[in-house]
Structure prediction request, 71 residues.
Amino acid sequence: EVVGGPAAAVLAADPGRLRAFREPAFAPLLAVAPFDSDDTAVSLHAGCPYRLTAAVFTRDPAKADALAARL
Prediction:
């Protein structure tokens, strides 16, 4: 049962395949993209015209801070 609104959706795919990676979604949605390097992650983020959000998950706090600063 969903109380208070629609359930959230998680999309995991190649960013080139889903509009959710390039356009705003006015719904509870999380788009997750795999990447091979920090440079690729920054390029994926820079390729979105809106850049409404970004998150970094890693066990290395120094790496997280460095990557977050680039985003």
